[in-house]
Queue: 2 jobs
Job 1
Amino acid sequence: MQNLTSPPPGQAAGKLIEVLDAAIVGAGFAGLYMLHRLRGLGMTARIFEAAAGVGGTWWWNRYPGARCDVESMQYSFSFDEKLQQEWHWSERFAAQPEILRYAEHVADRFGLRRDIRFNTRVTAAHFDEAVGRWTILTDRGDRVSARYCIMATGCLSSARVPDIPGIESFRGRTYHTGRWPHEEVDFTGQRVAVIGTGSSAIQAVPVIAEQAAQLFVFQRTPNFSIPSRNKPMDEEYERWWKSDYAAHRRKARMMRTGILYHIDERSALDVSPEERRRVYEERWAAGGTAFMGAFVDLLRNQAANDTAAEFVRGKIAEIVKDPTTAALLQPRDHPIGTKRICVDTHYYETFNRENVRLVDVRSAPIEAITRTGLRLRNGAEYAVDSIVFATGFDAMTGAVLAVDIRGRSGASLREKWAAGPRAHLGLMVAGFPNLFLITGPGSPSVLSNMMVSIEQHVDWLSDCLVHMRARGATCIEPTQEAEDAWVAHVAEVGNRTLYPKANSWYMGANIPGKPRVFMPYVGGVGTYREECAAIAAQGYPGFRMSAPQDAAAAAQ
Ligand code: FAD
Ligand code: NAP
């Protein structure tokens, strides 16, 4: 067992720098709102953030073309009416610099920075049963004692570069989309390689193509992408949202994805081929992820899904002039939407440019990175000046498990999650009292408008802490039975959909050796919210609450 005076094994002692009610790890939107709420409850709280600034995703992902794919009127906080009325978004889908400015504005507006320790990575968090507190260690050698440890570490913050031999020998520049430099990167006149064709690459490729002399896009698996139809913010649309923001947000919170858009309640198979085409054309013209709301059963019924997939494959064939390239860009290995649907600005059109070439690395994988570029297994060599890794993240669990988290009796979270993540409601883990996960695995998280999910988790947790305070409790932990039941429910609901058919990062399939488990909760944001609210209203069944003196007893 760990206590406040002895550091966890393998860690330097460090000085005890502070004693807090709550330590929050991460200063993205989740951490910022969490800090704001805890302060409102009169708690002492501090954020520890590895980056030099706030914004999380939007601090790190500065690659060309980065922007949100949930409309900005919805991809923003709802907790403060003045904030949402006063902030003006310049585009339908704001670009990264504007979203980062928004995060900075929120931090300044609510005076959050004074309680954030930047450039500080949390390396370990160990629960001390004797005192019912967490000891948190940082890479600066600090030691912090906190009653509550809140992981706001992000689902997509652990950037991943594939293990390709020879990376260190490359003489040019390398970049990862999720770790983009802060100074401007200018590809003018360069030969550039982009590895990957997920959402990040699909946004970056059209912009890099405009600068580079030659762009090679190395594709292993094509993805479905819908045009964003991004445009300057329509004043009337903004007025409509702001005329009753609270009511619109209330509706959005009950939607399946936490996004307010029309979901056609018909089956794709119950309408005529002409009507189906009309609906798809309409959604394609409107742009964005709302395409997947064209019919109610697109993610449940393979035959229904096939109609949407075929429509998009047809669009790719219409847009891309070279038939071989068009065929390569047409996804055929997964149902549409079972990998995160991409949203683009002229992605497919970019392959009609003279200076852009799609390289199929499914048939001939990248074998090595050399001093001058890339070599494929078939012996083909590509000489480039820069390589952009758009190769994604160790999603949902990567950032949490990068921290050495130990609960009761020194049990390690890494070991507990060795066969896949287990958490009650995606929020708390049995055996790890007072440890909270914001948008953790088993919650709707990445299948939703993350702002809605973040606010819901932070609000639920804040209400829970108020409830505990009123009862004199300082320790909370889910029961093993409740956690098992929830994990089984998440799997069962997932298995009723087409999602498990894809080799997606939702399934952990992008990380060699990662357990293949469908991690997010696909039951819907509204349903999930109701479930969480019902648990709170019933006095938190499935959770054990205790005071410090009986905290250790609660474990027995
Ligand atoms: P993050 O923003 O990821 O913040 C987590 C923070 O924790 C990071 O700053 C990280 O440095 C810090 N951290 C992690 N581990 C440690 C540690 N051990 N010690 C200290 N600090 C640590 N979602 C949508 O809903 N709509 C979108 O349009 C959308 N677009 C996206 C575009 C991109 C390019 C990416 C990568 C993701 C996108 N997402 C989108 C998901 C996005 O991650 C969330 O919307 C949201 O920003 C997550 O906020 P967060 O605070 O939970 O996590
Ligand atoms: P990603 O979806 O995981 O895509 C990674 C890409 O890299 C895939 O195409 C993958 O191919 C490829 N890859 C990995 N290793 C490779 C190798 N060794 N050789 C060749 N190709 C390799 O990552 P991402 O594009 O960064 O997106 C992650 C998530 O972030 C998105 O799904 C989304 O949720 C979010 N995001 C959102 C937006 C937005 O529009 N707002 C933008 C960016 C990101 P395989 O598929 O074959 O593995």
Job 2
Amino acid sequence: MNELKVRVNEYSKDKIPFHGNHFLNGNGYFGVRGTLEEYSKEYMPCINMAGIYDQVEDKWRESVNAPNPLYTYVSVDNKKYALPEAECVSHSQELDIDCGIHKRETEWDTVCGRLKVSSKRFASMANQHAIGMEYQVTTDFNGAVEISTGIDGDVWDINGPHFVKLDVCESDHVISITGTTGEKGITVTTQEIIRIDFDADVSVEKSEKRILRKIKFHAQKGFTYTVKKIALISSSVDDHPCRDDIRTISYDELKSESIKAWEKIWDISKVEIDGDDEAEFALNYSIYHLNCIAPRKLKGKSIPARGLSGQVYKGAVFWDTEMFMIDYYMHTDPAVARTLLQYRIDTIDGARRKAKEYGLNGAYYAWESQEGGFEGCSDYNVVDVFTKRPMRTHFRDKQYHVSAAVVYAFMKYINATGDYGILAEGGLETIIECAGMYRSLLLKKADRDCFEIHDVVGPDEYHERVNNNVYTNRMAKHCFEKAVEYTGYVKEHFAECYTELDKKYDLVKLSKLFQISAEQIYVKEPDENGVIEQFDGYFKLEDTSVDAVRSRLLDDREYWGGAYGVASQTQIIKQADVVAMLSMFKEEYTTDIMRKNWLYYEPRTEHGSSLSACMYSLLSCYTGDADTAYPLFLKSAKADLLLGGKEWAGLVYIGGTHPASEGGAWIVAVKGFAGLEIIDGKPICKPQLPNHWKGMKFKLIVHGKVYCIQIKGNDVKIEEQN
Ligand code: BGC
């Protein structure tokens, strides 16, 4: 297997936002953007906290960034050498994804001679509260140097500032800043301690929002001076409070334990591809990101759509987790997948409240879910580029398919793990409540004998308020089917839970209603050309090309959907919709139908969401066309490797990492190319590798057992590991 490193050898101020994502590090409790130590908030450094949110005035609620303990810069002869202001002579930045270590090396020509700064840092994978950093300075001259290092409480925010109070402290060699959020009074504390093994004059400088140690020393030419820093981040709402005394932590142990933890994670998660280094690298880079954001050792937390790369999309959880990410976790760390589902179980009251708000029964999960299932999405979620006014969008009220995604994820998880116990621990109730929500959406016309669902937004967000979106209706049907099936299972295996729920819901009656709903819901069939119409009237819309629609834009950042977006009145769609449905329910359609729909919809798809390419890729695999699947797979796997992802929706910044795309790439590799299916609790592979791939090797956990899967051409070897 090739080296797993991303690296740049030059500096570009324009790439600061991209590199923040590209070099991201994290441990599930927080994400650390791949920015440089000297950056203050205008260059978007952040330690983005999982599951902590705050609202300032009437701005969007969003996740909170901790006081930044990386903040460090160096001065020579009282002049600060920091990027981007001080031009450098050389610069490199690197992320070793094998062990989660971020490195940078920069040289400046100072008035006294050449100065070299290098740093290594990591978010500990073993101690979720900890960050370690080594900061080194070397000069080719003898002279006075000062390293300033400490905590910056003036953090980057999109809709902040979130800390209404900052307590800046120094006590017994430990410095700290505690920020208190305005809305709920949650505290986030960053403490740090440093170790140096050279003679220096160290003092501490405090200001309202910053605390810095000033390390002054006389540098000897050619000698390297190292500052080792340990930081601990904790909050008043931690699942596992931080009990460490920072003064007793050994830097070297912290580092080696983190490396060991990464080794263990990679042992189960690495995917080897024989014959394609580029794809192998891109896929493992995607897996790296999924590993950085997994809520390990956390209770009932889920993963935001932009991972832990910042406050974009309000740090909120979307259907992305259930449809695109959970597959990876349930086969590499099922406890993480369980935690993701636990989040939905725990937040059901939020979903119930939302259903009620719209006059529905059951549970309607938030489109942008925050803590407690709070709906972070607003009715005006895009800002019009021309008028600068918020535009009415219907993501919040009409994207009903989110609840069905939760149920679909329960089904996938149970099939992969055999953990039916989750049904008795809140799972069945969650599923019943989701099915209840869809039942209250069903409409029956006097002259038709089937149920319809009107006025929805499907995955293709460019067409709002449509009727009988085939994706939504089929997913609702699945939800009814699973509610019936799992109620039967619980009756048979978890009698106590059944009795409890029966008191509340009258399960016999409810199951009958769900059964009828499943049988009678209208799911559009292929027309005479074998194509399924995305929603009522879609075929009547202007049939044009993506390029033609793009050419109508007056501003690159213009939103394509909404009331008068360039795509709204055309057949151009944002992302996989019918194709996503076909990938989910492939056993119900012939290869011919799947192919015809792929061929119809792909040229009409903008792929304006990073969730799109993997779905098309997967369907290509299911139609036996791995070579057509391949470029779309690569696009999905490279979402955070390459510049060029969408950064704007109207005037709203949407840049950040793309974990759904990364999870989607894993799904294509394992379920598409390797052809994984779980039959009777065991993995079976029917591979169809792209032409130039010679083989694949990876591990999987299925029903609690670890399997090593080796594919060579069409030969498959599946070995159970002890
Ligand atoms: C997509 C949604 C997705 C969201 C977050 C949007 O652009 O259309 O399907 O859930 O991004 O990734």
